[in-house]
From TrEMBL:
GO terms for biological process: nucleobase-containing small molecule interconversion; pyrimidine nucleotide metabolic process. Gene3D superfamilies: P-loop containing nucleotide triphosphate hydrolases. It is found in: Cytoplasm. The gene is cmk. Belongs to the cytidylate kinase family. Type 1 subfamily. It comes from the Bacteria. This is Cytidylate kinase. It catalyses: CMP + ATP = CDP + ADP; dCMP + ATP = dCDP + ADP. CDD domains: CMPK, NK. It comes from Aceticella autotrophica. InterPro entries: Cytidylate_kin, Cytidylate_kinase_dom, P-loop_NTPase. It is an enzyme of class 2 (transferase). It holds the Pfam family Cytidylate_kin. Its EC number is 2.7.4.25. One of its GO terms (molecular function) is ATP binding.
Length: 217
């Protein structure tokens, strides 16, 4: 049996940063499931697919050629790591992530990865749907303002000209869609440990999770 560490939480809570460091420290595989949803969103937008056309969506799924290689993500052999972080993807990803056929495909893919490797996986439905059997479950959160500020700083550092207000708004809309959707909404699993990172540094969060894990491994 593989060891599974599942992390869920809203946008900008620090999940992927912490998950990545934990995976390195433990020598586990890291899977950023948000990046997979962002990648399929990129493909659908690029090809101008109408999301109400089931046939076109199935065609995208059946030809979804994705590779995760040392922190980079490749679609059809092309590196899209930076592209999928752009605001136009963030603004569309939650809607596309609600499509049942896409969720079914992603969950299957992610379960397969989790059954083959010791894994740290983060997203929105990892503790509840993808790895309900995980030995370790965390729900990482922070206030909306803190999360928006983190995203703002990140985008500014990458030379994106977007206002704090717009980012806060996008985060609020995305959280609402992710938490209120009917299939696999973001919620706190009954047996998850909740960590509010509003006043915590990345190191503090990582150490807290690492200590909990290492005590029980
Ligand atoms: O990094 P950030 O928190 O902004 O988002 P992300 O983890 O890259 O996820 C982008 C979007 O993908 C989320 O807002 C969800 O709509 C969707 N997602 C999902 O539905 N299920 C997951 N397991 C992961 C992401
Ligand atoms: O994956 P998620 O959307 O939950 O968040 P992230 O991409 O890991 O973190 C968003 C930004 O917040 C990154 O630039 C992190 O460096 C930063 N961060 C922070 O300043 N303090 C934390 N405790 C966690 C993350």
């Amino acid at each position: 049996m593989t060891i599974k560490i599942a992390i869920d939480g809203p946008a900008g809570s620090g999940k992927s940063t912490v998950a990545k460091i934990l995976a390195k420290k433990l020598n586990f595989v890291y899977v950023d499931t948000g990046a997979l949803y962002r990648a399929i969103t990129y493909k659908i937008l690029k090809e101008g697919i109408n999301i109400n056309e089931k046939k076109a969506i199935l065609n995208i799924i059946n030809n979804f050629d994705i590779t995760l290689k040392s922190e980079r993500i490749f679609l059809d052999g092309i590196d899209i790591t930076e592209e999928i972080r752009k605001p136009y993807i963030s603004q569309n990803v939650s809607q596309i992530s609600q499509i049942p056929e896409i969720r079914e495909f992603m969950v299957k893919l992610q379960k397969e990865l989790a059954n083959k490797n010791n894994i740290v996986m983060d997203g929105r439905d990892i503790t509840t749907v993808v790895m309900p059997d995980a030995q370790f479950k965390f729900y990482i959160t922070a206030t909306e303002e803190v999360r928006a500020k983190r995203r703002y700083n990140e985008l500014k550092a990458n030379n994106f000209n977007i206002s704090f207000k717009d980012i806060l708004n996008e985060i609020k809309i995305r959280d609402k869609m992710d938490m209120e959707r009917s299939i696999a909404p973001l919620k706190i699993a009954e047996d998850a440990i909740v960590v509010d990172t509003s006043d915590m540094t990345i190191d503090e969060v990582t150490n807290k999770l690492y200590d909990i894990i290492i005590k029980q491994l």
